[in-house]
Specification:
This protein has 408 residues and is an alpha+beta fold. It has 15 helices and 11 strands. The strands form 3 sheets. A 6-stranded mixed β-sheet has the order 1-2-3-9-6-4.
Length: 408
């Protein structure tokens, strides 16, 4: 192991040896020390959880807290602050359960499926716009980011023209190179923005998720205005950047695995396994899910004391060879329903069904309309977002034959 300090802790985050795979030390840790001591960039000591079974155990154990104010909670970022009201991803029961229940019906599979026509229209319009440009183009800037943004903005009823503001402030918050002042300033600006959006919805609800949320009299009794603001921010941020990164990385994966792309084009039913395999393979949250032990807990044979923090490494658990044979290989036919790419337990991603549908539409439509889509340059020259909480591509030039994708 490299970069071990005087306390016997590894320096976190560990660097990748290859941009397509998590740090190679994770494999060794899973076999020899599945619960290992690490030190975060802020100086916090924490336990790194790397094995699939231990990850699932921690994420279902109520003795671990998601609250950043809990003693021992480890920070990946330098500017962490208390979660705003309504930001239930960083809250424990019963507050977490109360707030999550307000929006859970909006993300159930039956309702999500009714959004297919609108999602399909957005994806088609974004491909139309891309095809009007002379190749090569930056797929991240032209397709992935705007498509993910437009879809979630349409769902929530947030003006799409505000996307550049939301993206820039979100990037500042999630960039570990930001100073505490920069991170906190961007977070405040975001919450002020969403306060204005929710206030407008309270006055003129409209038929969108946020409009329905604030217009429901029962919800007004169960959540304050400020909690509604936090919920709005959480839903938009959770459905935007994550999806954009998976779109970019997934497109790269298919272009660099032409045999499996050909299988997908012959068998569109493979979209189901493709999406879950991409979420497993890339696990874009490479910063880990932080938790704090509320009492003494044993995990993987290691005693974690009350007041100590853990970092749950989803990207390591999803590459656990004891669960997924040849886990470092992308396999479009892999059955992996128990992957932890969407989290696990009470805090599992509330929008998983929404995300699956969005990604199936994107990849199914993109390679049907532009079957010859390919990288415009060397894959080894691509730059990745190593410094961000959510991993992805900084840019990706692509090209195609210009007659591609035309609609009759």
């Amino acid at each position: 192991m490299r970069d071990i300090d005087a306390d016997g802790a590894l320096q976190f985050p560990l660097p990748r040896a290859c941009p397509h795979h998590p740090p190679p030390e994770y494999r060794q840790l899973r076999m020899e020390q599945p619960v290992a001591r690490v030190r975060t960039p802020r100086g916090d000591l924490a336990w790194l959880i790397t094995r699939h079974q231990d990850i699932r155990a921690v994420l279902t154990d109520k003795r671990f807290s998601s609250d950043p104010l809990a003693p021992g909670y480890p920070s990946y970022l330098s500017g962490d602050v208390a979660p705003p009201p309504g930001f239930f991803m960083q809250m424990d029961a019963p507050v977490h359960s109360r707030l999550r229940s307000l929006v859970i019906d909006e993300f159930k599979g039956g309702y999500v499926e009714t959004l297919r026509p609108k999602m399909q229209a957005i994806v088609d319009s974004m491909i139309d716009a891309m095809l009007k440009l002379p190749p090569p183009v930056d797929f991240v800037a032209v397709m992935a980011l705007p498509t993910a943004s437009l879809i979630i903005c349409e769902l929530l009823g947030v003006p799409y023209e505000d996307s550049p503001f939301i993206q820039s402030r979100t990037d500042t918050v999630l960039d570990r190179s930001s100073t505490p002042e920069q991170s906190q300033g961007a977070a405040i600006e975001l919450m002020m923005y969403f306060d204005r959006i929710v206030t407008e919805k309270e006055q003129n609800p409209g038929d969108d998720l946020l409009g329905r949320l604030v217009a429901n009299p029962a919800n007004r009794e169960r959540a304050s205005h400020q909690e509604m603001v936090g919920i709005a921010a959480l839903l938009l941020l959770g459905g935007y950047d994550t999806m954009a990164q998976v779109m970019g990385l997934g497109t790269l994966t298919l272009m660099t695995h032409p045999d499996q792309l050909a299988d997908l084009q012959r068998e569109p039913a493979l979209l189901d396994t493709l999406v879950d395999e991409l979420v497993r393979y890339w696990s874009v949250n490479h910063a880990g899910l932080p938790r704090a032990a509320l009492e003494d807990v044993e995990v993987g044979g290691q005693l974690i004391k009350a007041g100590e923090g853990v970092l749950v490494m989803l990207n390591s658990g999803n590459r656990d060879d004891s669960v997924y044979p040849d886990a470092d290989q992308f396999d479009i036919r892999r059955q992996c329903p128990n992957h932890v790419g969407f989290g696990h337990g009470l805090h599992k991603c509330i929008g998983a069904a929404f995300a699956r549908l969005e990604l199936k539409i994107v990849f199914g439509t993109l390679f049907e309309r532009i079957p010859g889509l390919q990288l415009a340059g060397d894959a080894d020259a691509l730059a990745f977002r190593h410094e961000m909480v959510l991993y992805g591509l900084k840019a990706m030039p692509v090209t195609w034959q210009q007659a591609a994708g035309e609609r009759a």
